[in-house]
Amino acid sequence: MSSPHQAPVPRNAQDDRDDLRDDSRDDSRTTPGPADSTDATQQAGLRARATVAGGSRLVVKVGSSSLTDPGGLLAVARLERLADALAVRRSSGTELVLVSSGAIAAGLGPLGMSSRPRDLAAQQAAASVGQGALVAAYSSAFGRHGLHVGLVLLTVDDLIRQQHYVNARRAVTRLLRLGVMPVVNENDAVATDEMRFGDNDRLAALVAHLVRADALVLLTDVDGLYDGPPSNPGSRPIATVRSPRDLEQVNLGGVGSRIGTGGMVTKVEAGRIATGAGITTVLAHSADVDGALAGQEVGTVFLPTSPRPASRMLWLAHASEPVGGLVIDDGAVRALREKGASLLPAGVVGVTGSFEQGSPVEIRDRHGRPVARGLVTFGSDELPRLLGRSTRWLGEVFGPDHAREVVHRDRLALLDYGRDATPS
Ligand SMILES: Nc1ncnc2c1ncn2[C@@H]1O[C@H](COP(=O)(O)OP(=O)(O)O)[C@@H](O)[C@H]1O
Ligand SMILES: N[C@@H](CCC(=O)OP(=O)(O)O)C(=O)O
């Protein structure tokens, strides 16, 4: 176990555990980062880590960079070490869900691709080939411990449509009850540029919410969050993140590994989503999986920031990239915020961007302040002629199909609007 407030030096995914204790490391990195300065913070961090150690249901996410080598083949030894650690924890009675990236990366080698392709169809093909290799490797690695693997490939739709959401939760929880190790990934072979998570960090946070996990563990190729790019010798490790405010001075601009997606930005976002849903999150190097699961002071712990919200629309508030926007009047702001109403065409005064029916949009007031996000019922081509109209009028003129809300309340997540933003 590392000593309090002392996070190990960054290393890449090729390193083995002994490198962690390399005496030649830069001492400046052992200086605690900005959010670590008090005993109270450390104690809070330890308490949060205890929920990982004692949790009865955990979600563990591992990134592509930890599972594949630069040649685009699976790093089987590393994958087996991960499976060993999870199987040991599973044998103590903890239910584990593994969210594993690596499908696209693992497909590169077999398809003779030298780097991650940019075009969607090539990514889909790589994922299709790589996902098979990935699940075969997991089946064999967990099979050594007598565990079966159940593959669950999710699309964005599975986490936003109510029936799909309930279905996904039922599938994963039944696997857990049957003693199977669920391995979750995005269904990259059919994901589109518009509707995909892309990185698996936010997906993992939403899966943690889906299965009501006690904690989320994000495993990657760097040993925690730093206050600047880890390649910069002056960057200091951050052992504990108490709230998003602790991250205001943190430079997340560094790109991720060549093979992964999203870098630290999406991991921090995942931490924000999960902790906002009451779920402790630990970010650690994949080689530190044992320590992270045991609640040791490895990597960075993100403390829960609020009690768990029930909304399945959590993803909309945090994880979607709105493709367009709606401007609404003050009456509509009040209806959404105070009455939990759906957004009707009568309250919409403007449309921005170009989007299709079912797309995520940002809903703003007349002053440009974000009010909510939602999945829109009409495309941007159709909306302008509907604005300001009553649903009854729309039904009479355009037919019953148009007598609908622009965003149904079941497909809407309110944002933090702020006290000073109440419309007059
Ligand atoms: N402030 C920071 N602290 C830690 N890592 C950072 C930071 N900024 C950028 N990074 C980079 O994020 C990378 C991890 O992201 P990524 O490559 O997407 O991993 P994965 O494949 O595990 O999801 C690290 O290799 C690191 O270089
Ligand atoms: N679903 C994708 C994840 C893409 C990805 O690179 O994610 P990550 O390594 O977690 O940043 C895959 O399996 O390739």
From TrEMBL:
SMART domains, per the entry: PUA (SM00359)
Subcellular location: Cytoplasm
Annotated positions binding ATP: K61, T220, D221, T261, G262, G263, M264, V265, T266, K267
Top-level taxon of the source organism: Bacteria
Main location: cytoplasm
A Pfam entry, by short name: PUA
GO molecular function terms attached to this record: ATP binding; glutamate 5-kinase activity; RNA binding
Biased composition regions of type Basic and acidic residues, renumbered to the chain: 13-29
Pathway info: Amino-acid biosynthesis; L-proline biosynthesis; L-glutamate 5-semialdehyde from L-glutamate: step 1/2
Segments of this protein annotated with the region Disordered: 1-48
Role this protein plays: Catalyzes the transfer of a phosphate group to glutamate to form L-glutamate 5-phosphate.
Record protein name field: Glutamate 5-kinase
